[in-house]
Write a structure and sequence with these properties.
flat; Nucleotidyltransferase, domain 5; alpha/beta; 15 helices
């Protein structure tokens, strides 16, 4: 038998907090003189400003510099932000890392003791928490995306209302809420029912479909005054949301003005526009050192598969549940990039044919987040497209190299390949 020694603790003085809506349990663990033993104490506090400051005073009395808390809804935010402002090192723990074990009592005091014990042994990896200035920007961009989703639902309600009234406008116009569609719906709300007069409102490319529009509007006898009034209410709500989105956009532009360079870097990628760059930058912040590698950022964004394996049995691969706002943005940018004649577009179309559009969307989102990390980590960098024939050239080069190496091997030569220093790599899957 040989003597076994415990590993040194990751932290000497720690505090674990289990947070609820109105109260929280805090446990401190500090060294006890002699023998490497530990002592702990648990107290209950409220979540108001006065109670959190009392918790901070208690931690200072015991010289506890670091605090860990579980991510519970939004209840952790006021406590985290207040203690951070008081100078404490705050770590947010993912609930999956500190999940309850069978046989352990599931109560607030015991949960706080478990958090503190895990934290002092280095078993907790802190979650990403945005910098204070980006917390404000993030609230604006997230609310703008929520308003955009509400506007989409109202547009769908208006279209369904027209269908129920036998107005087949959506079967003729690609966008019912475009200039022509809104003008026609406005006249319907005002009481106009003459199909010819309504069809004469067509503008732009819709003028070529005047006859089809007139036929689609021949069934307006089912559009009663009450239904028309309800349509007016929905259209008014859409207009109000449009105004609110525009106002939020102006505020976001002002808040993100100091990071214009990072926005332009993100906009240089295929499929990305101004709003996509703003939404992602608000979620990640400009400091890419918080994500050690591009793969870490892609994983945090949920753009990687979740592999499940036990022994030789390979389970089903499912998408990770990462940041849902970045997931929504990359879903849009991936589909947009798939329509471009770029390397990313070629990758999206190739994956769509083999694996389907859903998997291609996640795979291209993974590529985009990796490129995003490289761009923001390199000041002044812009996306440099490798061309839609990138993969064809890659396969052609690989075939030529394999052919010549095989021929030399057949002649009895042992071949060692080494690229000349003055020649750049022929392919780079993550080149920006």
């Amino acid at each position: 038998m040989e003597e076994a020694r415990d590993e040194p603790l990751y932290r000497d003085r720690v505090c674990g907090i289990d947070i609820g809506k109105a109260s929280m349990a805090a446990t401190i663990r500090i060294p006890l003189d002699g023998g490497g033993r530990r002592e702990q104490e648990t107290r209950e506090f409220g979540t108001t400003r006065r109670e959190v400051l009392a918790l901070a005073d208690w931690l200072r009395c015991w010289q506890v510099p670091a605090v860990v808390m579980e991510a519970t809804g939004d209840y952790w935010k006021p406590v985290f932000y207040r203690l951070e402002a008081e100078g404490f090192e705050c770590v947010l723990a993912d609930a999956r890392q500190v999940r309850n074990l069978p046989g352990r009592p599931k109560r607030d005091p015991s949960d706080s003791r478990w958090l503190a014990a895990c934290f002092e042994r280095g078993a907790v990896a802190g979650c990403f928490v945005a910098a204070p200035e980006f917390r404000v920007i993030r609230e604006h961009t997230r609310y703008r995306r929520d308003l955009t989703a509400e506007r989409t639902r109202d547009k769908q309600r208006a279209e369904k209302l027209l269908e129920s009234a036998a107005v087949k406008l959506s079967s003729v116009l690609s966008d019912v809420h475009g200039v022509t569609g809104r003008d026609i719906m406005g006249h319907l709300v005002a009481g106009e029912r003459d199909p010819r007069a309504l069809a004469a409102l067509a503008r732009g490319r819709a003028r070529a479909r005047t006859r089809q529009i007139e036929q689609a509007l021949e069934g307006t006898e089912f559009l009663s005054p009450e239904i028309a009034a309800l349509l007016g209410v929905i259209l008014g709500r859409i207009d109000r949301v449009d105004a609110e989105i525009a106002a939020l956009g102006a505020v976001i532009e002002r808040l993100l003005a100091p990071w214009e360079e990072q926005l332009q870097q993100a906009e240089s990628m295929p499929g990305w526009g101004r709003r996509a760059a703003q939404d992602v930058l608000a979620e990640t912040g400009p400091d890419m050192s918080r994500f050690p590698t591009p793969a870490h950022l892609a994983s945090w964004a949920g753009r990687t598969p979740l592999d499940r394996q036990s022994g030789n049995r390979q389970g089903a691969a499912r998408r990770k549940h990462g940041n849902r706002y970045i997931g929504a943005v990359t879903g849009e940018t991936s589909a947009a990039a798939g329509k471009t004649q770029t390397r990313e577009g070629a990758r999206y179309r190739a994956l769509s044919r083999r694996r389907g559009k859903a998997k291609a969307n996640v795979a291209l989102g993974n590529t985009q987040m990796r490129v995003y990390h490289v761009l923001l980590s390199t000041p002044g960098a812009r996306y440099r497209d490798l061309g839609p024939d990138y993969y064809e050239r890659d396969r052609s080069t690989a075939r030529q190299v394999s052919h010549h190496v095989g021929r030399l091997g057949a002649l009895g030569y042992e071949v060692t390949l080494c690229r000349r220093p003055d020649q750049p790599p022929a392919t780079d899957p993550h080149a920006a």
